[in-house]
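Entry for the shared binder. Reason: the reviewer on the internal report wants the predicted structure included alongside the sequence.
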Amino acid sequence: MAPLKRLNDNFTYTNRSAMRDQITLMQPSTTNNPDGSSPGQSVFAQNVWASCKLWRYGREVNSADLVQGEVYWDVRIPYMDGVNDQMNVVGPNGENWFIVSVSDPDMRQVELRMMCREINSGGVTTDVDEVVSGGTF
């Protein structure tokens, strides 16, 4: 296998052997159903080899009555035309990631680098689910 291209500034592409995960890229529908509802997403590309690495872990976001865990992923794939930040990624284990940004780092159409955001389903924190009575503390 020939070595990957290098630039003068020591920039290197992600080695293809590091792309061990398979992901699916989903694109939003451009049309609506006859009743005006959104038909959901369609598959843009399936079984795409990718390198998925955890970038930032364990941040909690508090909004209104919800507490949500937030994780960011660094996802790298071979270049594909048409990938944009309006799409979602279905991760290797079925996770749903939102694409925050897509970049072709050196504009040579060799590799795409995506910053993706994963958010769990938030839980309500203002309601009391259990009342403890009696006992000593």
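Summary line for the report: The first strand starts at residue 21 and ends at 28.
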